[in-house]
Fold this protein.
Amino acid sequence: MQDAFGLPQSLLVLGGTSEIALATARRLIARRTRTVWLAGRPSAALESAAAELRALGAGVRTVAFDALDPDSHETVLGKVFAEGDIDLVLLAFGVLGDQAHDERAPTAAVRVAQTNYTGAVSAGLVSARALQTQGHGALVVLSSVAGERARRANFIYGSSKAGLDAFAQGLGDALQGTGVHVMVVRPGFVRTRMTAGLPKAPLATTPEEVAAAVELGLRRRSEVVWVPGVLRVVMAALRHAPRGVFRRLPV
Amino acid sequence: MPAETVSVTGWGRTAPSAARLIRPRTYEEAVAAVRDCGVRGGIPRGLGRAYGDAAQNAGGAVWDMTGLDRIHVVDVADGTVLCDAGVSLHRLMEVLLPLGWFVPVTPGTRYVTVGGAIGADIHGKNHHVGGSFARHVLSFELLTADGTIRTVAPGTPLFDATAGGMGLTGVILTATVRLQPVETSLMAVDTERATDLDDLMARLTATDHRHRYSVAWIDLLARGAATGRAVLTRGDHAPLDALPARARSAPLAFRPSRLPPAPAGLPGGLLNRATVGLFNELWYRRAPRARTGELQPLPAFFHPLDGVPHWNRVYGRSGLVQYQFVVGHGHEDTLRRIVDRISAHRCPSFLAVLKRFGEADPGWLSFPRPGWTLALDIPAALPGLGALLDALDEEVAAAGGRVYLAKDSRLRPELLTAMYPRLADFRALRAELDPRGALVSDLARRLAL
């Protein structure tokens, strides 16, 4: 069960090698979390992530999960929920893609969309139904500021996150009054493996800061969390900038 | 029976969960509800005054027992009442006071049910002389998980597991309670100020036994030499001859006044260090240094917050956490350290209360034990609150103390066995009585009760 501060005792991470998710898991294990499921494609990285969390004192299990195989989601996630209540589902999988390459290789671009959007739609709906059945829990969806307004530099990734973000907001509204809390997290540029080698963006943040924002959001039962918080204002301005101006901005 | 799925919280309005709310109107309907509870079970709920998740059951059933609200027998000669579990103490006072009887124990609110009073084994300002509520219960009828109704008498394991058992042994349907005779509905109240925590403890230790009711309001925002300054209010039921002549015509009148309810949707942050600090300062200053024999109506003495319906809304969307613990005599150092830490953290807590408990009660999970109990309300949104309370739990557990389950919404489960040594017996009795786990609550899931 979540306590008065929204802290979960059990956690399911979809995208078990995500650095943001693991930073969040470390933070939650330090407080109340004792059971962790890491769902992801079987890999050495997934097992070592599990071992790292185990060392912090949690019972950690891994489960084979592929965002690109929505047909399997019902079965895979159903097994996890059958083992006991899940207080927090952290939907953290996603790929950045390679914009320049993907523009010339539409099938690669589609994979980005399928992972970040349709995979999340499927996993999100399956998780939401299970949470609704148990009558409590939180679904935290890692979106991105890139979804707030598509940019020339990464509109394939951005459009997939825009879809995900809209989906998660709608899901949150649909789950009002069911005891299930849906929280959309919109980080800015996060320094991780995924963004290694990219030019530094302004207002860059870290996985640990995102994790702290998630914990705060759970306590406040926030519906949308920006990391850092000032991005809410910045993006509101950028969103309303005229098209011609926005196109020329160095963002 | 109609059931609607609703979001349910405790009085602290934190951690909501959804459940099918069912309101049995007869014992037969209650039996049917327990028999058909489904895989996620059910939990009885009274008036929802437990602060945390004790009367919530995510994904299962919550049985609203306030539909069973008949008072069956009042024995005016012997001073006992037989009533349904859904009857509130408020209703009992309305009926019993004109007959010259009062409930044996009342907490800080009249809006609790008899069933809830037994389930949480509540205590009041008279614990140092009268013990907890269940000590005055002569018997009750309990609907257990198998759908049978058992009559349970004091001194049996099922009685002691149910008193303080947070509704997890079964659904109390009726109870017979021994009453307290009173001549009037007024209280003769003595008020005095204590300048700091040591002064307060000394005064409570020296003179508590002279009063039936005793409690101290403590200013947890005061710092330095004034840390723990307090206002003691102690009282007894006023005898008839203490009343002025014009009041003697209706000495047992009970007319509690209520203000309009606090509106819904208030923003958080209204109760902050500035507003609560100001309130505490005024509350302390306006209390007389020493006054004896002041006549107060019952509600003013026992239930000041009942005057503002839905006062919990003042804490805004994120709600409040109530923290109440007890540490035994000889652990005054722990109490001092905890008061210092709360004071240093600047918790904006108004109406924090300190009380000296009497003998422990027989319930296996009953909260009171001889020593000092401190209760405080804190806005749940206060930064760092979770970690602070975790640290206080460690201190409490190390001193052999415990926190009160009826108020809890955030205890670390690992500490529970240290705090409640009879927990193993409780779990064993539940496993035998209710093997499929038909009676379960969010509290039970969170703490593995």
Observations:
- Residues 186-410 of chain B form a domain with the Alpha-Beta Plaits fold (CATH 3.30.70.2520).
- Chain B is about 25% helix and 25% strand.
